[in-house]
Amino acid sequence: MVKRVLLALIRGYQKYLSPLFPPSCIYEPSCSQYALEAIGKYGALRGSWLAFKRILRCNPFHKGGYDPVP
């Protein structure tokens, strides 16, 4: 249940909010796509934790690049 709610929120962000801003994620896949994949693969708790750590790394002090869900 929680997993489906989180996935719906992320998809809503991708569809309605993300297009309003210029692309800024330094990683591939984007942080929101990474969150979708992580939650889909590992569930709400562990997937959210992985997404949270990824979002913290998404800043100018990190190199970026290809960073798939483990």
TrEMBL record:
Its main location: membrane. It comes from the Bacteria. It is found in: Cell membrane. Pfam families: YidD (PF01809). Belongs to the UPF0161 family. Could be involved in insertion of integral membrane proteins into the membrane. This is Putative membrane protein insertion efficiency factor. It comes from Parafannyhessea umbonata. The lineage of its organism: Bacteria, Bacillati, Actinomycetota, Coriobacteriia, Coriobacteriales. The gene is yidD.
